[in-house]
Automatic annotation (TrEMBL):
The keyword Signal applies. Keywords: Signal. PROSITE patterns: PROKAR_LIPOPROTEIN. This is Lipoprotein. Residues 1-26 form the signal peptide.
Length: 153
């Protein structure tokens, strides 16, 4: 009788381990599926935010630098900490001496455009998001020239 109890205990323990193992495997698969979906949603969200930030940057430069010829370079979509998306880059006002200045356009409730030191700090501390191979500087230059009614070089 004691041997039968030991076998029953051993068998029930194995069944419990097996069931627990299957449950963990199912949770891991579900978790991986959720992560993949979240990554796809994040890429879509970052593309939408990138478009918003690009448009906001161009509109702001157009509005505030109408009498200047502005050129952009080294423009990237970045993520500051875990929540704040921003476009970082440099711009040159051609009427000024050759001095490239950092800028950052942050996604807030609307947006904020930072120029100079604060932009440099945000951009240095942010992680670059490589969601596409587009040259964002070229896109900004083209959009700004289009608003200004200037044909591209």
């Amino acid at each position: 009788m004691k041997i039968l109890k030991n076998k029953f205990f051993l068998l029930s323990t194995l069944v419990i381990i097996l069931l627990y193992s299957c449950q963990n495997n199912t949770e891991n698969k579900s978790s991986n599926t959720n992560q993949t979906t979240a990554m796809k949603d994040n890429i879509t969200a970052s593309d939408t935010i990138k478009t918003f930030l690009m448009n906001s940057t161009v509109q702001d430069f157009y509005k505030n630098k109408q009498n200047s010829s502005v050129e952009f370079r080294n423009v990237f979509l970045k993520l500051y900490e875990t929540e704040t998306y921003l476009i970082c880059g440099e711009f040159l006002e051609k009427k000024q001496p050759e001095k490239w200045v950092d800028f950052a356009t942050l996604k807030t409730e609307g947006y904020e455009l930072w120029i100079g030191g604060n932009a440099t700090t945000y951009c240095n501390d942010a992680k670059t998001i490589s969601s596409s191979t587009e040259d964002l500087a070229t896109l900004l230059n083209t959009q700004l020239k289009s608003l200004q009614g200037v044909s591209g070089k």
